[in-house]
Amino acid sequence: MLTIRTEKLDKIASIISNRALHYPLDVSLVGATGVGKSSTINALFGETLAKVCTGVEPETQFISEYKTEKFRLHDTVGLGDGLEADRKHATNLSDLLLNTFDERKYHLIDLCLVILDGSSRDMGTTYKALEQVVLRCIDPKRVIVAINQADMVMKGRNWNYLNNRPEPELLNFLNDKARSVRDRIKEATGLTISTPVCYSAEKQWNLNKLMDHIIEHIPHERRRVKA
C-alpha cells in the first residue's frame, strides 16, 4: 500500500506541475461527525500528510490542515452537531470555498471531497450542505463524493472478512447506493456529479479507486474568480 500511495502522490504532483496549478493543490474535506474523515486521511496518505494547524480563532477553529509539498487538505469540522453549529459551519464552509488569493484572481480551494457514511440511513445533513453550500460555491466538476464504511452498509453482512472484500450481493448494493446518491443530488440541485466511489478506510478496501477518482478530478486550470 505504501508503494502504491507514493506512486499516486507522485502522479498528483506531476499533474499539478504539468497543468501549472497552484502549489499545493488545496482540497476541502466535508462530512458529518463520525463519517470517518480522519481515518480516510490516514488510510489514503498515512504519514505523508503532516498536520499543520487547527485554528485558534473562532472563525478558523473549524479547519485543520494537512499538507505535503504539492497537496493540502482542509479538514472541516463534522456536520450534524446541532442546528446552530451547522449554521456556523455552513457560513465558514462557504467562506472557505470562496476564499481567494493572488490579488483575488483565484479561489484557494480547487477541489471539494465530500464523505458520506454508507452505514447510516440519515445523510440529510450532508446532503443539505452539498445542496445549499458546496454546489452553490464550486463547480460540480470539482466536487468528489465518496461513501465510506462500505463494509458496514449491510451491518457487516455479505462482507468477506477472509478476503477483505464485499461479496457480490453487497457489491451490487453499493453500486446501487452510489447511483442513488448521484441521482438524489441531481434531483435536488439540477447539477450532475460523478458517481460516488464506495470504500472502507478501516478495511483499506477500494482506496486505490478512491485515489484514482481524486486524480481524475484534478482540474485542468486554476479556479478563477468570476468577474
UniProtKB/TrEMBL annotation:
InterPro entries: GTP-bd, P-loop_NTPase. CDD domains: Ras_like_GTPase. Gene3D superfamilies: P-loop containing nucleotide triphosphate hydrolases. Transmembrane segments: none annotated. GO terms for molecular function: GTP binding. Residues 27-148 form the G domain. SUPFAM superfamilies: P-loop containing nucleoside triphosphate hydrolases. This is GTPase Era. It comes from Haemophilus influenzae.
